Amino acid sequence: MSTTTAVVAGPDEDGIAAALEAEGVDVTRVDGVISRPQLEEAGVVAADLYVLTDIGQSTTIPIVCDLNDGVRTVVYARQTVPEFVKGQLDLAIDPQLMDASVVADELVD
Description:
Helix 1 (16-22) crosses helix 5 (100-108). Helices cover 31% and strands 20% of the residues. The protein is built from 5 helices and 5 strands, in the order βαβαβαβαβα. It is of the alpha/beta class. Helix 4 (83-86) links the parallel strand 4 and strand 5.
């Protein structure tokens, strides 16, 4: 079985990257103002998962979907997801409602 790969974008106060790593996922992190070249460099073109933790970076979701048709997009943040990205999102979860380890387990299964 091949290793699942994920790009986690944004600050990770709720520990989703560590939870994914605990499930055996190969995680690359990107933070700050995220650009298309940064996403490409982080390996999003071949990633299985794109997990966004900063709603302020929501414009990265259409970019990721454009770069990788097969990627599953997940928002793991307390804020509401903007309307313009909802159609391209596979999952949006509030960390206050579901622990990172539970989310990671579901994403890997």
